[in-house]
Amino acid sequence: MALPTHSDHPSARLAPQEASLPSDQVARLAAPEDRFFRHIVSSLRNGVIAIHRDGALALMNDEACRIFALPSPSLDLGRPFGDAFRERPDLVRVLAGAFEMTTLPNRAELRLKDVDRVIGYTLSVIRDDADRAIGAVLFFKDLTRVEQQEERERLRDRLASLGEMAAGIAHELKNPLAGIEVMAGLLRRQVPDSKNAQSLLSDIISEAKLANAIVVEMLEFVRPVRLQMEQTDLTDVLHQAVRLAESKAIRGQTAVKLDVPHLPAIDGDHHQLCQVFTNLLINAFEALDGRGEIWLSAAIQALEPDPAVSDAHSQAFVVVIDVADNGPGVPADLRDKIFDPFFTTKVQGSGLGLPIVRKIVDAHDGRIDLVSGPGQGTRFRVTIPVSSASGWFGKSVADT
Questions:
Q1: Strands 266-268 and 378-385
Q2: For residues 303 and 394, is the Cβ–Cβ distance under 8 A?
Q3: What CATH number is given for 228-400 in this structure?
Q4: Is residue 140 within 8 Å of residue 67, measured between CB atoms?
Q5: Nearest to 321 by CA among 359, 288, 281, 271
Q6: Containing H/E element for 123?
Q7: 145-224 is classed in which CATH architecture?
Q8: Per-residue model confidence as pLDDT tens digits over 166-204
């Protein structure tokens, strides 16, 4: 795609008879074409960035600014792209290779960690009529929601395979464990005077109950989530979750601070959403070990419209709930594993609490994110659409 600059300006492509016209008439003839070109670029659902051969920024549309979280393009046109994008070194690296690589990337991906986006891009060299390189253009799309959706589908596939195996194992274990618990109880009644036997049998019963609880939790995890969707008051869910967590975990001196305003009713399963936040609060109580603070906050946010969606101008809303603590935090090497089934750092943990939380959130078309670091505390952010029909994850998007 040629840019209307330098020798490629619309006035340079006029017919010979038009080129002999006075300059003001040439400008009037060229202006509609130039405006049309600008309208095309600004209306694209893709991001577009173009540079001249000397590195000056020639063009950048609004979608590019949105994706890269940049200011208005008019402020940077004409500047060296290295200066204009100094906060985006990955983007500078891609553009800098336009005139150096023999084969330019096509349908490549770039991850922008600072703005939490994934883009797919194609880089092309702009050539004039003499086949000289006069610039480069980068076309790209925001693939973040597609990436999230694909990750959710991969997780579902893994869980389906794991579920078939785990369900069979769980059923085979459940009956023997119940038998061990019953027989140990009967044996304990027969040796009431032996303290050593009583102690050993109590340990057997306790361990059998723990193993059975893990089996029950495993069955709950592998079972498909069936939501009883109704208009759900999230404020009530969060307050109930606090009460349940306090009854299941040792709170000690831990302070719980709530910042939960009146929230709109959402399409959700009251019981299972309560389980989500109860589990997250129990994790926070256990991480703090009776000392520290937990913050539970919620707010409604307007979802940023996705230009790739046909009804991108319609406004969708989500509720964002944060469960944060000032505990020891999660080490960097464990953050990618905490949602994996059966992964746990607890002595008696099953490793299924957070995977179940994620499964329920996914079933509500939501997402859960973790922000943590050693000594920096932990924050779980749960984002749930107000309406289950909002399609806010881009489910109807064929190619974003």
A1: unpaired
A2: no
A3: 3.30.565.10
A4: yes
A5: 281
A6: strand 117-127
A7: Orthogonal Bundle (1.10)
A8: 777 777 787 888 888 888 888 888 888 888 888 888 889
